[in-house]
# Entry
Amino acid sequence: MIFLASMSIFNFCHRFVPCLADPARRSSLGLKAALVVLHIVYAGILFLFDSDLIEKTKQEPWSYTALYLLLLVATLIQYFVTSCSSPGNVLDAMRDVNEKNSLFSKASMLSKQTASSKNGSLIITVEGNQSERNIPGSNVTSWTKLVLDMHPPGTSIRTVTCSYCNVEQPPRAKHCHDCDRCVLQFDHHCVWLGVCIGWGNHCRFWWYIFEETALCIWTGILYITYLKANISRAWLKDVIMILLLVTLSIALIFLLLLLIFHSYLILTNQTTYELIRRRRIPYLRAIPERVYPFSKGVCRNLYNFCCARSSIYSLERLPTAMELEDKSRPYTCLEFLTCRCC
# Structure
């Protein structure tokens, strides 16, 4: 009877919440709920035990404590925004490019027909600018041509066709087996967020790590302040606070390392996948370890990462041999003064 009752409740939940039927989405929702509960527990116990902090909050509600709660809410919002954002899918990019090319082709045909009717047998062809010429057609051959254009001229080109999505992958793209899709500028699949990190959401991911790190530091300071003032009053509360502080310190170390690592990747325009699997990626094997092929300088990399991502479907071409030779050349003192690295 208990088994039948539990099964009926389970089916009832699946009927009204269809996403619970998928084990992967159920696991992702469980992780999101666990992370929210962890934040509430760490902040709630602090306000539950620290009477001085509560009094200070009552006297000055919009001061120090309000900023802490604002950071807590902002971190949770940033977490959900990042987890719901798209990393930039190759199939979506191909559809977007095909739609643009279809509109361009229709406009071109209309202009040809208008010119033909006005000038008899004279046909006027509208070429468009460079970005319009690089847009492929609405078939696989045109998409393949676009991917081939990402490689430098005169090089031996080996296109990679995804066996799962059945589409040619542009440089820096990779198929994610967890999400079952090809991702532009693939970095990694984040288990905590339940989404891939790629071109479209890497900036949001960095800001989430930054906010989470700042929140951990602030929470740790509040915990230490409480223990300094109340270390000998109630030993049970002290034990709970010390255990939470230890786990918080471990999480803080991990977050700081992750923040520094991704900051390094941003400054050099790399991804986690490219750094770890460099020798397994065909277009990176012959490049020396200390050469960053996609880097455009620290300032330009930062600008492109933070400010210039208006479209997640912008494709980045591979550098030419001359560009790689220039990047591999060591800096001189004069070049450092003239900010060649930037």
